[in-house]
Amino acid sequence: MSGPIMVPVRRPLGDTGMATHPLALGGSTFGWTLGRNEAFDVLDRFAGVGGDLVDTADSYAAGRSECILGSWMRDRNTRDRMRVMTKVGRHPDHRGLAPVDIRAAVDDSLQRLGTDRIDVLFFHGDDPEVPLEESLGEVDALITAGKVLAIGAADFSPERLIEARVLAANGLPRFELLTTRYNLMERKPFEGATELVAHAQGLAVLPYFALANGFLGGQVRRRADVRHDARGHRVAKHLGRRGHRVLAAVDEIAFAHGVQPASIALAWLLAKPTVVAPVASATRPDQVEALIAAASVELHRSELVELDRASA
């Protein structure tokens, strides 16, 4: 393992009352590009170096991601030390955020995960067809039943987040977390109104695609490096003058700190006042240390300025 020896760092997960390591392992690859055994290897390494926050969704690989995570927790007896985040709203059997769909989706997720509770339940995108108070009312019942401990929003607009806070002021459950696409290569959708609302509401922000589909890990520098699959196509769009400028800045700072480029890209996110834990995936166990190491990297102000400038 390269870089400094790491001591597990913990941060409050917003106002949920939970504290976790400030890096969430993304489970979107489980059951998609990673089979059961490969996913177990990644999860073993993640837990072994202090990771305890895992992000999945009922729609990832049509539920297989939750099944793999659940079987790993059961096999390794790790449920009580892990914090599990999942999302509902996009599974083909329970699309949208109608109360009946939320209820059924949560029960199905609990079964796949092999647990009696979901630590954080996200609404997986907005559902303009359903009044938000109806969706939150159903979650209120799930919280009362002990099936859900806290809730978050995935890719909600600033306007809907404000509406949700008004409803919370009237007694409905409050969004405590927000997950949204945000990284050095994709800044504009979050920076601005969404960031202002998140800050004003004290939302714990968990950026997904934190490494821009792996591009910020620095393994792809030329078109010839691009894999011919869906993930490779996403990475390829970042190749270009701006992408190379960002990688050059990340490389220089990573060398100065003795860590991998991925650690610097994640440390930049962790320096943002609203960000609590970036969400990043690993396809091999040996990639996990670079993710976890980000929490131990303190970027200097000049380095943050350089990264901001390179990615502008």
From TrEMBL:
Per its UniProt record, what Pfam families does this chain match? Answer: Aldo_ket_red (PF00248)
- SUPFAM superfamilies associated with the record: NAD(P)-linked oxidoreductase
Identify the domain of life.
Bacteria
| InterPro entries listed in its UniProt record | AKR_Detox_Biosynth (IPR050523), NAD(P)_OxRdtase_dom_sf (IPR036812), NADP_OxRdtase_dom (IPR023210)
Which Gene Ontology cellular component annotation is one that this UniProt entry carries? cytosol
List each copy of the NADP-dependent oxidoreductase domain by range: 22-310
The entry's protein name is Aldo/keto reductase
Organism encoding this protein: Agromyces mariniharenae
Organism lineage string: Bacteria, Bacillati, Actinomycetota, Actinomycetes, Micrococcales
